Amino acid sequence: MQYYVAWTNSDPIYQHYLPYxxxxxxxxxxxxxxxxxxxxxxxxxxxxxxxxxQPAQKAPWLTPLRVWERQCEMIMxxxxxxxxxxxxxxxxxxxxxxxxxxxxxxxxxxxxxxxxRLATISLPANVQIVGVxxxxxxxxxxxxxRVLADMGYSSFALGSLARLVTANRDxxxxxxxxxxxxxxxxxxxxxVSSVEVLTKLARLGVASADSSAPAQEAWRGGLFYSNxxxxxxxxxxxxxxxxxxxxFAEILTQPLPCDCPVCREDSSRLLNxxxxxxxxxxxxxxxxxxxxxxxAIASDNDxx
Length: 304
What we know:
The protein is 42% helix and 15% strand. It is α/β, with parallel strands linked by helices. Helix 7 links the parallel strand 7 and strand 8. Helix 3 (97-118) runs parallel beside helix 4 (138-151), helix 4 (138-151) runs parallel beside helix 6 (169-183) and helix 7 runs parallel beside helix 11.
């Protein structure tokens, strides 16, 4: 499974240290003037979503055309593989079945708008468009996915699942499986912060997923180690909060053996609980080990 690390302008530039990483950028997480060329190093692949998770009142500029124009500005002159998502309509906050239905229909209308626009322009060979599946149960996810495929989409992403990861994980997997049944394995899952869920998705055969897990764990004083995946906590005043969030915790008092770029230089820096620079170092370390773990799963799943 391909993994995209979600990036904001407060995160480290992962690809500067780990050139193989894939990166997902959401327009609200960068300035309006930001371009991917502003990075000193480019990732191996870039995915840009629509930024539609923002409340509408905070993002009045969000229209299918404006999102498309902004995405094109962000990727100008790049030659790396790029995936762009149409303006999708997330389902969180809908209070009635009627509102959920309207959002599902609106999402498909936005997807059709992009397909129609691309009929009049030539898309660069390195750019692929992604049909975003939005549905509120197994049936609507399956049906929406089939409609997107009939429109002409061949790459897909499934949204509005993040809250199910903690609220109802069985239902989360049922919805992923419905999308896989509808459109096959060329499926991306948005916003999966749980490392355990990421590894399960890899075993299910999902093509790709994204999360901000490396940075989120780093901010909480958490560290990943791979093969097998282990998670540790730095000794800090936030230990009790971390225990509540994860129901387990083991304090790390000395760095473990590690070949990541941070540890090769000075692994003791990981253990400083304060300061943005140390958080970024932990994020790079965590990203390295998450990639290592997912690569090991891919190797285990390889029939060869």
